[in-house]
User: Fold these one by one.
Assistant:
Number 1:
Amino acid sequence: MNKLKSLLVAAFLLVSVASFAQTGTVKIGYTNANYIISQLPESRQIESDLKAHSSQLEKELQNKYKTYQEKVEAYKKGATGMTDVVRADREKELTTLQASIEEFQRNADASLQKKEQTALEPVMGKIQKSIDKVAKENGFTHIFTAEALLFGPEDGNNFTDLVLKDLGVTPAPKGAATSPAASAAPATSAPKPGATPVKKK
């Protein structure tokens, strides 16, 4: 999910240009949008919502996988005494269940990513608006993402703190723990059903 957040950051926060065309001077700053997100009050609610959504999906996945495993064990125990027709029917059922679990895993991942994107988009829009405002007020001509910066002053021209101040947030002391919004556990942490393949006889 951090990958999705990085994509959103790249989409919303590539470069902000102030008055370079008029003045011919360059003042470059950079900021870390992920850090700003982690400092906003909204991030705690987003994190809570994502964790609840993830937990619900994971619970359903675990239930599906448990049912699958039980049916696999029942098949193994009774396979020798089954007629060809019954055996073929059980194998078809297990194959269908396995495909259903794999489809649910894909859909769960997509659902969680969509929910995260929907939650983060207005926050990123709010941050971008503040960045544009602070850049112009302080004479910056270009603002880059800290994620893409290879070298620069440690304080980043103090631009991030200026943005947080504009957003009405007091930044946490350096080294303090943060709560990034996208730290919810993936919904598809159950073992893949393919670990117990069904072999036709």
Number 2:
Amino acid sequence: MTVIESTPIRADPAPDPTPESDACTATGPTPHPRPEGQDRYTISEVAAFTGLSAHTLRWYERIGLMPHVDRSHTGQRRFRNRDLDWLNLITKLRLTGMPVADMVRYAELVREGDHTFEARQALLEQTRRAVLARMAELRGTLAVLDYKINFYAEGHRG
């Protein structure tokens, strides 16, 4: 079983022993309210919770970005809280600009288990460096915008 960096507080009856359940998904407070005690969600409920489309959720599953999603007796997807936690992390990684291929690789490493911690860390550190470089680039862009805004504001007064 892998180790979760931090565990959100919720009333799950027992931890799921699969590697996907301990997928280092905890990223802080839950961004969307979840019904107390509920741990089964339809794809439309997950789309509402996450802001992702049902199409995107199916695509994530198809490309291996989502761990195994449970199915009902009729074959409908039944997402769990651990899936919502994972989607929260994936959404954050996507916002960093991490390529989907790297996100899929990260998911594969998580599924492989604890012995991949170093590889996961390296992948996240690489992404962090890219985010910091992008932030520096955006700060420079913001400075140019501020300069132009001030230029026009001062020119308009005169």
